[in-house]
Design brief:
This protein is an alpha+beta fold and 559 residues long. Helix content is 46%, strand content 21%. The longest helix has 42 residues.
């Protein structure tokens, strides 16, 4: 009987263990099903309050809890209720709840479980927990960085209604709540950024068009009306289809072609590609507003999460019309000035010729007419420079290249400026070998360039100094020509800007002050010949204006 009783007791113990394990397994399976169902619901929710409401309802329904609260709490700051479930009323003393129960959870990051809160020492004060609470389970909600941002509080009216499995289950729910809430905030941030970007694009005067890696128009702003298109006609359509739509005239309005589109898509789809696209100017003929001048820029987007091309269209119509008006005005001034100045020059020449030799007035007339002739020629040179600057900046200049001897150019410049140099007690000398190669340049423009450089040196050179014109052949096949003075030199912050129009060094005492066009003309002449111009120091004092010019190539000149 004793052996039988022992076996019976063991069988009963095994049965109870199996029943307990079976119930635990069944509860665990039920919890897993709850987590799976809850996860699918949370994925479709983009409201943080609704997320905690769903979590809490599932937590109360899947446990023996009578009520539950989702609370927002941190290391500092007040406690606030996010969501609630069950029939119990809210606690009335949230500060007391924080001090006695929530603060240890926030500081430790560990859950708190009590089988009977009345046996706690000291027991909870009235109002710190939901009414009739005996069992308590508080689970922290932790952010990715490890900080506690909230808690899930479950309360039961009976003693010991929460087991260890409940704590683990609610912790998993809290983790899902954290993931869902962060995804919601991230989505809201992305949506806010997108809305802000769209708002910015909508207020831009420029037209913008975003093409994704699949060749589809992903974004377009209302400014696309600039080129005669509408967002409704373009959005979410393949660019290839737009190019093939004859009614849209998409290619003419955007300056895109099928070949360029293919090249762009291949470029942004190739890892490590670094291709760039220069700005492109073209005209758009719109039936309502007439002709518009457009500047288009293509900006490739090569980020892993964003591949595409952003097309930006700028309205350059007003600038183009202003440029045309400026050119017309310049040409009008040049024409209106040249004719009377030429007439004055002719009159001075006749006056000089008709004064008889040997009279007392002859030297005075010759001196007066010579000074006047130089002044008029200077004005004519500035007029020609102004016209040439306008043409060069518009790429309309034509160079009449021919073999030219540098020595003859220098001699012409010396002959022009020698009277002024004698008055200023300054010597102009050519300091270069006599057998240098011939220049292959536009002789008239290069002579005027040298004239401007030497005249500029005369303005700043002291009396009894020398202006030297040096030249030597470079290994690159260009000739280096330098106009060297002994003046005060050029400050470092002016050396780049000095070749812009109307820029002059401030604070310098000079006998004659120009208008700031001569060096701008020199820069454009050098660039038109494929050369360059810059400023160097002259030791021990002064400046060197260095220009490079092409020489006649071996085998004869070629265009």
């Amino acid at each position: 009987f004793q052996a039988y009783a022992t076996q019976a007791a063991q069988a009963i113990k095994n049965a109870r263990t199996y029943e307990t394990a079976d119930k635990a397994l069944e509860q665990r399976l039920e919890q897993l099903n709850v987590l799976a169902a809850m996860g699918s619901i949370l994925n479709a929710t983009m409201d943080e309050t609704q997320i905690y409401d769903i979590i809490l309802r599932y937590a109360v329904a899947s446990s023996a809890a009578s009520s539950g609260l989702a609370l927002r709490v941190a290391a500092a700051g007040p406690v606030s209720i996010i969501a609630r479930a069950g029939t119990a009323a809210d606690p009335t003393d949230l500060d007391g709840l924080r001090r006695h129960f929530l603060q240890p959870v926030v500081q430790s990051g560990q859950l708190f479980r009590s089988d009977d809160v009345l046996r706690l020492a000291p027991p909870p004060a009235p109002g710190t927990l939901p009414p009739h609470t005996r069992s308590l389970l508080i689970t922290p909600i932790m952010a990715r960085g490890g900080d506690v941002t909230g808690v899930i509080l479950l309360a039961g009216h009976e003693v010991a209604v929460f087991g260890a499995g409940d704590g683990h289950f609610v912790a998993q729910m809290a983790y899902q709540a954290m993931i869902a809430a962060e995804n919601t905030r991230l989505f809201q941030n992305v949506r806010t950024a997108r809305d802000n970007l769209q708002m910015i694009l909508n207020t831009m005067e420029e037209a913008t068009l975003l093409i994704n890696a699949g060749g589809e128009v992903a974004m377009v702003n209302p400014g696309i009306h600039l080129i005669g298109l509408t967002p409704e006609a373009l959005l979410h359509r393949q660019v290839e289809d737009l190019l093939n739509d004859p009614a849209l005239k998409f290619g003419l309005r955007t300056g895109l072609s099928s070949e360029l589109l293919i090249a762009i898509l291949q470029d942004i789809g190739t890892p490590g590609a670094t291709g760039s696209y220069p700005p492109y100017s073209y005209e758009v003929h719109d039936e309502q507003v007439g002709v518009r001048y457009i500047l288009r820029q293509i900006i490739p987007l090569r980020r892993d999460d964003q591949r595409g091309a952003l097309l930006v269209f700028y309205n350059r119509t007003d600038e183009r019309e202003l440029e045309r008006a400026r050119e017309s005005f310049t040409q009008m001034i040049v024409h209106d000035l040249r004719s009377p100045l030429t007439a004055v020059t002719t009159s001075l020449k006749l006056l000089r010729e008709y004064v008889p030799d040997g009279t007392d007035y002859k030297p005075l007339v010759e001196k007066t007419t010579e000074v006047s002739r130089r002044a008029i020629r200077k004005v004519l040179t500035r007029v020609d420079s102004l016209l040439d600057i306008a043409r060069m900046e518009s790429n309309e200049i034509y160079l009449e290249r021919e073999p030219v001897d540098l020595a003859s150019l220098v001699e012409a410049v010396r002959g022009e400026l020698e009277p002024l140099a004698v008055e200023l007690e300054i010597a102009i000398v050519g300091d270069f070998a006599p057998h240098l190669p011939l220049l292959f340049v536009d002789g008239d423009k290069v002579e005027r360039m040298l004239l401007n450089l030497v005249d500029n040196a005369l303005k700043y050179s002291p009396a009894e100094s020398t202006i030297r014109i040096q030249a030597r052949l470079l290994d690159s096949g260009l000739m280096r020509v330098a106009v060297i003075d002994e003046g005060p030199g050029i400050p470092a912050d002016y050396r780049q800007r000095l070749f812009d129009r109307f820029v002059q060094v401030e604070g310098r005492q000079v006998i004659r002050r120009g208008v700031g066009l001569g060096l701008a003309f020199c820069r454009l002449v050098a660039a038109a010949h494929g050369g360059s111009i810059h400023v160097e120091d002259n030791v021990p004092r002064g400046s060197q204006f260095v220009v490079t010019l092409p020489v006649v190539p071996r085998g004869g000149p070629t265009e």
